[in-house]
């Protein structure tokens, strides 16, 4: 919020009116990440426009308030290796350079994922599934080329994304189908070989569901038993106003850190819109048809819903602060409400209010409360 100050300077008979902009003291001093400097990184995802330089306004917010970044899409395999052996590093290079220039923690997202992986990855020239050997080789080439390029520069990697179903079983992805269960182990091994210094993470959504929590714990235990380096578990944190409960979320933080790995909150956002389905997950393959009644806040967010959002966001942060020794980073999936992927998923074209900065890049009231919480010694 900028206050327009009017100064009237009198010069004899002449009066000069000078307008100057100045922000109130509290806001001038507000640097979200600094309040958490002794606890965990405060991160945000960067989209294509931001990385390419087409959105300087929100990038100013990024520099002021965040000290960690993750690419929203440009490092996913469909973008970084759209055709076999053809890599596009233009945006990823810019993304990494921005992080380095601003002294930020840089997380790479993501190496092995069932979504946003190009079709060629799994098939031969006749469009038949490739053999286990070819699939392993492709996985190895992909990981070595991408991780290798940013060796020593990308600090942490989401090596495998979303390999576990809500019931705790392994997702029947092409990786599992063609390679078998050890694709998980191989992915982590390749990433470790490509950059032995990088910290390696498993990342997933709906991690507060008890069966999924258990499935992830078992999977990570198996990886650890196989001698694989795994440094952390990312809880995406695409949450709603009602679910998941903070209690179940907390149980997962505890269960994961009990494995001796770090916990990361990797993609936090909170939808305020009605859900078209029972499920509150984030499988991007699920989509629903637009209906106006599913998009109730086009004219603005009612005060009571905004208050609910603020209270729950603060509740999540209280939890994160409680587990500051276990949590290394809290990252938001975008900077401001206008950019949030939730405007287009699971229903395209809605108006959601999921993040901590509004459509004008202004911090919501709760940011001041969160910063006060983080600043407490
Ligand atoms: C989303 C992006 O935000 C969208 O722009 C894209 O169209 C689909 O993917 N889990 C993840 C993220 O790990 O990569 C997804 O990002 C959201 C769910």
Describe this entry's structure for a reader:
Strand 9 (238-240), helix 10 (246-257) and strand 10 form a beta-alpha-beta unit. The chain contains 12 helices and 11 strands. With 377 residues, the protein is an alpha/beta fold. It binds (3S,4R)-3-hydroxy-2-oxopiperidin-4-yl beta-D-xylopyranoside. (3S,4R)-3-hydroxy-2-oxopiperidin-4-yl beta-D-xylopyranoside is lined by residues 72-73, 161, 205, 236, 267, 282, 284, 341.
As residue ranges, the low-confidence spans are 1-26
**Helix/strand structural class:** alpha/beta
Measured as a percent range, the helix fraction is 25-40%
Q: Which small molecules are bound? A: (3S,4R)-3-hydroxy-2-oxopiperidin-4-yl beta-D-xylopyranoside
Radius of gyration: 22 Å
Major sheet strand order: 3-4-5-6-7-8-10-11
H and E order = EEHEHHEHHEHEHHEHEEHEHEH
The strand count comes to 11
Overall shape: it is globular
Provide mean pLDDT, rounded: 93
Give the biggest beta sheet: 8 strands, parallel, barrel
First-to-last CA distance:
28 Å
